[in-house]
Amino acid sequence: MGRLVVNVACLVVALSLCGFAQMGSAQLRHNYYAKTCPNVENIVRGVVTKKFRQTFVTAPATLRLFFHDCFVQGCDASVIVASSGNNKAEKDHPDNLSLAGDGFDTVIKAKAAVDANPSCRNKVSCADILAMATRDVVSLTGGPFYAVELGRLDGLSSTAASVNGKLPQPTFNLNQLNSLFASHGLTQTDMIALSAAHTLGFSHCSKFSNRIYNFAAGSRVDPTLSKNYAAQLQGMCPRNVDPRVAINMDPVTPRTFDNVYYKNLQQGMGLFTSDQVLFTDGRSKPTVNAWAQNSAAFKQAFVTAMTKLGRVGVKTGSQGNIRRDCGLFN
């Protein structure tokens, strides 16, 4: 009997801990600001749309900012915080230095617009604004419009050291990609769907030059690259290229969020090793082939994966707050 009581007590504790672990994502809901700031999505969308019309870079920059934020300490807008004094923040880690300023600017301007509404002031987190803005840029570029779960708080810390080993690298193979995404509760299918964010935006030559020069003994160019595509890349990225030169991630439809990303992989036109491996590895190839043929299926998988990503590391209660300035702690 004593052992039974102990076992039941352990079960209760285990369930309690499980419930605590899920509290953050459980707080998220579609109508979170229905009473406190009912027009928040329209306000954010208006700012994002205006910024997007001014510069297309707004789209890939905001989308990439969301990924880099969620993968490090969870979706808590910690990547937006500026370094101060001796504290080197996330945004100044080498893996984040290529984040375009338009992404940060979009969130900051949207936050200002939300707080300009007296009923909304200091009631909407920067983390939620980033999540909404990300959905909006996906939609503005031809991708799916989806309901965003809201209710995140902004994180209370941001350190460059916290970025180490947390972000996917261009050289990753499938095992490395799966392992990193699995650490955030994301499946291989989620990973392949989220990789299609590379249908937008650009990369600097240094991120893939290893594939077009001195790849391996006896093979100067990565054999998984299309020969014509490799020649194009060499033309745009000579050995001593200006480090500011940027190349479209999707050479076919670089300004449209679509499934052409997967069609490019079928043709040997994945810019990074981590892109092309999705087609060359037999475990992920069937999914690439399926989504290259079925745009609707891909977009649904992307929405599912983005929703799951948006639940990673959500801060609640004393774990966070609502920043008055997205770039500074209160």
From TrEMBL:
Enumerate the spans annotated as Plant heme peroxidase family profile domain: 27-330
What EC number(s) does the entry state? 1.11.1.7
Keyword Secreted: yes or no? yes
Residues binding substrate are 168
Q: Name one Pfam family in it.
A: peroxidase
Binding-site list for Ca(2+) 2:
199, 250, 253, 258
Can you tell me which residues bind Ca(2+) 1?
69, 72, 74, 76, 78, 90
Annotated signal sequence range: 1-26
Superkingdom: Eukaryota
Q: What is this protein called?
A: Peroxidase
Record organism = Cinnamomum micranthum f. kanehirae
